[in-house]
C-alpha cells in the first residue's frame, strides 16, 4: 500500500544547493547575456527640500564612470503608471528621479553608471545636490501630517492622501453617542510604528536588451506582476519582455512591488548600450524603498460590566510616506479585520492615510491585518482590566462560537471557518497558564525585581484576500521519462514550493517526488502567474497544481484505454499502480508508457480561483521585565496557529517560527525612526534593531487543523500568522508584568527606556 | 606623514584548497575579493556594517566576517568558504543538520550561518541552547526566527558527541 506523502515532513529539494554552493541570487549571476554589464549606483538625497540643480561634474570626472543620468535627462521618458489611482493626482505624479524637490531622505537623485560597482559608488559620492528655491515642508509625525500643520503637496492643499470611507473601505463614524448603551467604555491611543522588512538580500536587478527584447533578472516576489509593469513602461509585448527571478533572498512583502530604481534600469541599459546591473546596499534598503505598518490608532471599546463586549470603534491614521501607494491602501485590511476573533454587535471604522516626509509605506508581512489584531487585542486587554476580569476569561466570553461559521462580522467580512476558543484553550494549556499566574503572584508578593508578565492574543486574518479572493496559475506536464514538470506562477523565495508543490503533484499523479521538477520565476517558461505574497501560494498555486494534475489524469485516461483495449469509462487511475481496468490492477499502464504513446506531451493547466481564507490562532507570550532597568526578556512564546490541513508540517512550522520572530521583534526592539528633520536614524543594521538569536527563545508550537471550505484541500495561508499573533501577545505580556503597578498601556516597541519610563 | 598608496596590490590566498592570485585595489574587502575575483558567490553580502554575518568564512580555521578584512590582509592565508565545506558529495555534518532540521528558508544567510556554526562547535563542542544563541548573535536570519538554526547546531553537536562515544 502506498502511504500518501501529504502531511509528511519531506526534506526540501532546495537545500542541497543552498547549503553547498549557495543560492544564485541576482548579484551572483554570471549569465553570458550580462557579459560586459555596466553598474549603477544611485546618488540619493541626503536632506529634504527644494532642489535647484544637480552638479554631476565630479561624478563624470571619476575614473570608471561612464555617465550620469538625472531627472532632467529623462524628460522624454514617460512616467511610470501609479501603483493604484486612489490618491490625488498631484501625489501620483512621481518623477523617476528627484526633480525640483526631495520629498524624503534617500530618494534617488541621479543614476551614476560605471564600469564597476566601486567606480559607480565613487561617482555617486561626487554628485552634488544643490538645494534651494524654497522652504521645504517637513512633516515627520503622522499625527502632525493629519492636522495639516504643514502641507507637503501645496497644490493638493492637504496631506490627506486617502479617506478610505470615500471608497467604501471603512464605515465612518455615526453621529450621536455610539456607546450610549455600554456600561464600560475604554479608550486608548495605540501606536503601530514603522518597521523595516529587511530581507537579508536587498533589491537587486540586472537587465539586457537583445534586438528590442528585454530580459530582466530581478529579486522579486512576483515575476509576472512585475512583467506587467515593465511591459507598460517600455511598451513591450509579453514575448519581448522576459522576467527571470533567480533565487531570491527573502521578501516579506517588500519585493511585491517595484521601485523607481528597478524600473529605470532598462532605460539606462538602452542609453548606454550595455547590460546593466544594480544591487542596493543595506542602507539603501533601509532608507530608499519604504517601511511597513506606520499607523496610529484610536480604539474605543464598550460593553457590559461583566465583560461582554458590544461596540467597537477603530480610528486608523496611516502614514503613507512621501508618495502614497500600496501602504496608503492597507488600512482597508485593518478595517476588514477590525472585529478580530470576537462577536461584536456594532463596529465603526474610520481610516485615512496621510503623506509625510518619509519613504513610501509598503507591504510588510501581514500588511494591514497585524494592525487590526494589535488594535482589538489591546482594546480587549484594557477593557478586561477595567472590568476587573482576567483577560483570558473576557476573551473566551466574547470569541465567535464555532457553530456560527461561516460568519459575517459587523464590518461585513465573512470568515470561512474557525474554532477560536479551542485554539485559545490549546495555547493556554501548553503554556501552563494557571501555573504562570501563580508564579506571577508569588513574585509580586515577594517583591521580586524580575517582574513576570503573561500576554495572550487571539487572532484571525485574511489570506489570499481580500474578498472575492485570488487566482494562481500552474501547468503540469508529463515528461518523456514518465516524470512530471510543474510550472508554477507562484514564486517561492524561501517558502519551499520546489518541495511542497512537488509533493502535491506526486500525490495526485503517483510519481515519486524525486521525478517531479517544479519550475518557477521565468515568464518565458510560465505563461501566467501572480506571485507569492499575502500567504496565498498553497491555497491558490497549490490548488492549481492539484487541479492541473487531475486534468492530466483525465486526459491520459483515453490513451490508457487504447493501450488496455478497454472503454475509457472502465479505466481507473490509482496512484500506486497507474491506469488499469477497474478490478484488474495486474495489467496497468504507467506514465512512461503513456508518454511514449502520446502524440503531444501530456499536459494541462489551471488558473485556479479560490475565495479568501481566514487562518486563526492564539499566542501566549511570557516575559520577564527587570524592574530596575526596564529591560524585557522574552522567555517563552507558545502559539497555536491553525491554517487548515498541513501539507508539510516542517515547512509550515518554519513559516510560523519566522513570523513569530518578526512579530516579537516589532513588540520588543525593531523600529524605523526619523529625526525631526527627516533624517532616517536607523539606517544600518548597527542602528536598526533587527532581532537576533540572542533575544529570542525557542518557540513552543501547538498544532490545530481546521479546513477552509474555500479550496478542495482545505488549505489556508500560514506565511503571516506568526507575525500577526505574536506582536500583541508580547506587548500584552509587557503591560501585564507592570499591571500591578498601575500601568495599563505601553506602546511598542517596548524598549527598556519606554518600560523604565512607564515604571517611573 | 608622506606616503603613497599603490594603485593595486597583489593578493595570493588559498581558498578551499585552491591557489588564487590577483591584483586588487588595496581598499578591496575580502568578501568582494572572494565573490568577484575568486568567483565564489556562495558567500553573500547582507549589510554594510559587519552586523549580519552573511559573509562569514573561515580564515586559518577560525570564522571571520569577510567584510571586516581587506583582501590584502588575507594575503598568504588559508580561507574556507561554504563551497569548500562538504567532502565532495558528502555534506559536512553541519550542512546535514541544517537540512534535517529545516534551518534554512531563502538560503541567503545560510552559508555564513553554517560557517559560523561550524566554528562555534569547534570552540565549544557541546554548547547549551543559550550558548548557541549567544554564539550566533552576529549572524542574522530573517526567515527562520533562529528556532531551527539553534536546533540544527544542537543536533549537530549531539551527533558529533554520539560518534565520539557519546561524551556529554
Describe the structure.
The complex is a heterodimer of chains A (760) and B (168). With 760 residues, chain A is α+β, with helices and mostly antiparallel strands. Chain A folds into 4 domains: 31-136 and 203-248 and 255-287, Aldehyde oxidase/xanthine dehydrogenase, a/b hammerhead (Aldehyde Oxidoreductase, domain 3); 137-195 and 290-401, 2-Layer Sandwich (Aldehyde Oxidoreductase, domain 4), CATH 3.30.365; 417-463 and 614-760, Aldehyde Oxidoreductase, domain 4, CATH 3.30.365.10; 470-610, 2-Layer Sandwich (Aldehyde Oxidoreductase, domain 4). In chain A, 28% of the residues lie in helices and 25% in strands. Chain A contains 20 helices and 28 strands. In chain A, the strands form 7 sheets. Chain A has a 7-stranded mixed sheet with strand order 3-5-1-12-9-10-11, with helices on both faces. A 5-stranded mixed sheet of chain A has the order 7-15-14-13-8. Chain A has a 4-stranded mixed sheet with strand order 18-26-27-28, with helices on both faces. The longest helix of chain A is centred in the last third of the chain and has 28 residues, at 537-564. Chain B is α+β, with helices and mostly antiparallel strands and 168 residues long. Chain B folds into 2 domains: 9-84, Ubiquitin-like (UB roll), CATH 3.10.20.30; 93-163, DNA polymerase, domain 1. Chain B has 5 helices and 5 strands. Chain B has a 5-stranded mixed sheet, sandwiched between helices. In chain B, a hairpin with a 2-residue loop joins strand 1 and strand 2. Chain B starts with 8 loop residues before the first strand and ends in a 5-residue tail after the last helix. The mean pLDDT of chain B is 93. At the A-B interface, helix 1 and helix 18 of A face helix 2, helix 3, helix 4 and helix 5 of B.
